[in-house]
Design goal:
The chain is an all-alpha fold. The chain is about 85% helix and about 0% strand. The chain contains two helices and no strands.
């Protein structure tokens, strides 16, 4: 009886500790991700990828001899 109660108490303590640690880690991660320099870098990378996709679409849309003189 006492062993089951101790196991239950330890289980609850470990679970709560894990939740607190995970919450702190996620909070730190979001603070790091949402810094201004990271947001600017990610924004620039997304803009470049969109530009490349657009240029690729233009090249595929055009006729094969359209770019030759």
């Amino acid at each position: 009886m006492h062993i089951n109660l101790i196991n239950l108490a330890l289980s609850v303590v470990v679970q709560k500790s894990a939740e607190i640690v995970l919450e702190l880690l996620l909070k730190k991660l979001w603070q790091r991700v949402l810094r201004d320099e990271n947001l600017k870098r990610l924004s620039t990378a997304i803009k470049i990828k969109i530009l490349v996709l657009y240029l690729d679409w233009l090249l595929h849309k055009s006729e094969p001899g359209e770019w030759e003189e």
